[in-house]
Amino acid sequence: MTTERRRDRLGRLALFWAVLALLVSGCAARTLDDLSATYERLTIEASQSEATRRTASASGDSMIVPPGANLGPAFANISREALKAAQNVSSSDVETRIAFYRLAASAAHFALVEEARSSPGAAGGGAAALLNEAQSRGSEACAQLKTPPQRDCAYLAVASPLATLAASSETWRLLKPQDKVTQPDRVRAILDERAGDADFDAQLAGYQAGRQKAIALAPIGASAGGPATAQRGGSVMDFFQVNDARVACLARKRADLAVWAANRQQPPSRIDRRQAGVAAAAAEQRYRDAYGGSVQCGTA
Amino acid sequence: MIVTPTLLVFGVQGLIKLGRASREAYEQYVRDRPASLPLLGTVSRTPVEQAAEFFRQPGNEAWVAAGGTFAAHWDADTNGLREGIEHEGPIVAAWFAVCTSAPSATPFEPARSVAFLVRQWEGDGPPPPWLRLALALADVALDFGEASPALLGPTGTSQPLLETLAALADRSRALVPDLNDPEQWTGDRWIRANFAQSLLVTVFRAGLTTLADNPGIVIREQHLQPLLAATIAPLRDGFEKAWANAPAGAQLGALVRWESIRDQWLPAMAVGAIRAVAQDRGFFLGKVVGGPGGSNAGQLVGALANSLLDEAAKLGGQDLLLRDTWIRFWSAAIGVIAARPELVVPAGTPAVHEQILRELVKQVAGKLTAVPAGVNRTLLLELAATSLEVVNESLPLVLRGTGWNGVGRDVVSRVIEALLPVLREGDPLLLRRLASPAQAVELVTVVLGEIAASPQLVVGGVAGPEVSAVVSAIAGAMAAQGAELLTAGGWLAVASAAAQAAARNPGRLFKLEGAVASGAGTELIRGVLLQASELLEAGKPPVLSGAVLAELLVEGLNIVAARAATPAQIAELLGALRTLAKEAASPDGLILPGSLPPLFARIGLQVLAKKVPAAATVVQLLEGVGQ
After folding, report:
1. Contact call for B35 and A6, based on CB within 8 A
2. According to DSSP H, which parts of B102-188 are helical?
């Protein structure tokens, strides 16, 4: 084989790797399509991680909340990229900018929840700042339109209080206290830290206010009937219905935990058990008023 | 509207002409398609909590309402248990008792996911499937519009690619669901349809990249269609199978996994396919391998793609270098199939061919899996890919079309086996002698190039053993005492000479006995290296080193290739060399070190011809060649 042929072959080898590198780098373009696809994939992984946590929580020590997948940084990165991309959208294309802000906010939501899970009690990391920026800029953009996109603007109206409520409940929503293995003061400490009376009331109020704003922005209406069970392709109202039910379940869970802890130790307590129970009953009543059915919170 | 490939092509072209408006239409579609929004987390329930919840449900409230059986345990204001541990046990016991008689009343919430897929607008349906596909393809094309305007448009070089994809989308229901049937693109079916669509879009992007980077490439739809269909189909089928077999709740995991395989493998596989079409269009005009009833190009490529994706599924997403090397192996194999399919698939039926191609990939994968920890697998695979390419390039054209008996497969396997012992990490002797892994590739290129160019080796079916023997001999010598006295370039020259000598004397100079290299060529190389090492250890000037050593080995191999030599004669040759080398190492000797190689070439032939005794003095040796 001549030297020229060898050189030619090695040259083609180099070209192959160059084309491959170009293809790989070409896949990294941060369009709405690309970012959305990555985000959707991550939410699927997050769902699977949640299912694993629930299974472990159901079978193991009630005080141990198993960790989730380490997806927080990936979600935060999508949020950052979406905020950056939103700045590059033409000023006349407000709807696309809003879509980027919606994506930034929803990705930041997951990052914020994971921060709360991995370092409970720690000061908020970068996810809160991303969420706030996405919500404020997104809401501004929504206000510019006479007919704002229903889903995106409704979600942006409620994004921040929804994420705050989700983050604050992350450390205790899967607790299953048992008499023999669980210390009541630990349960109480977790609740006090993340869901003390004033904080939790403010979070509930924030969620309600955001929800009202969302409904005012986008005439989504309310339909009678039981909780939605469809997990794919629901309407904006289905989304709120599921979250409204879960808000009521969180309030009830907090009240139940507070009563359980109080029944096993002497006061003083920083949570007013009665007030917690009344708040839960009110949330359940709001749900019944809106949808005409009762709240079901699951079995395990 | 009935969708046809022509309509789809016109649609995409029209959208490309619209430029920005088209892109906006695509953005609008992306913006408004269902998106997942986060949900609050669900809660876990203890038996006490489940019992309380049960009694809050409509129809069960009477149990705890005023006057009810369990009213004493219930607080109407908070709609929950009364405070005090004494209420928990009775209410749980009551719950169990009631549930036993009415189990269907047990509370249950099926919605446990962390996100909810939400539509943007109520009432408006999505665009029809064909328009969504056209929008997605046009969006890809617009990425190339500014940089490579000649690519696009009715006479652009991308036209055959677009026509191919349009035809695949419309005619082949096995790849993409019916574009005329929106029902196939909604609900749970949407995920599968969207995945299939994404395969076409991925191939379009990869194809445009290839055409933009290689303006000279000419392709035709009729060549490309079977090949791309065969490349895409295994991915589509793999996903469909994974989706169908996944247990409830794990289907989306299958989607994630196959999207990852798609993104990591399909672009480069498509590039390999398109380049193969460009290099040998004749093959893809329907040429059949193995006579009537044999395989066509699509069947062969499909079988290869299937095997490759089997390996992809095992590899996971971690070892990127090995993945890229597998893709290079794919390109090399496609190139061989395009140019000389007989190299890898001898005569037979499609089923036989499919089996053979599966075995080719399995064989290589099996060897990679079986190698001990620490062996550089990526380099081995790279060498396998190189072997395929070199065999393809070097085989004599005059023999094209005759029975190759799958010599390509044989050679690939033997190269890996021969090099395994010297590629162990921690003792990578081969790499220690060479400047870089790329030189290991070149070493194989050199050896294969020479041997594969010999018709008698190929037709006689002994190319594989000969390659094994030469590669083993060279690799073994590179790990032997004295090998460090030769440069990397020198080793490549020696390898080339050894391969040439082997090609001229099949089965004579280099042999393999078990895993041990033997034969006159092997003995000569070993002996020369040993002498070089001994000379150095004796404190003599290193006259047998570097370029002189390389030339000596080359001349020695030329001698043994020119005349049959017994082991005893090799020993005589080495004896003569020892005499000459000692003289050259002497400061006032009769021989200059630089003249050793040509002198050895002439004297060696005299020794083998028994015209000069091996035990002769240096003066006698020189007189024997007239000096």
Report:
1. no
2. 129-145, 159-171
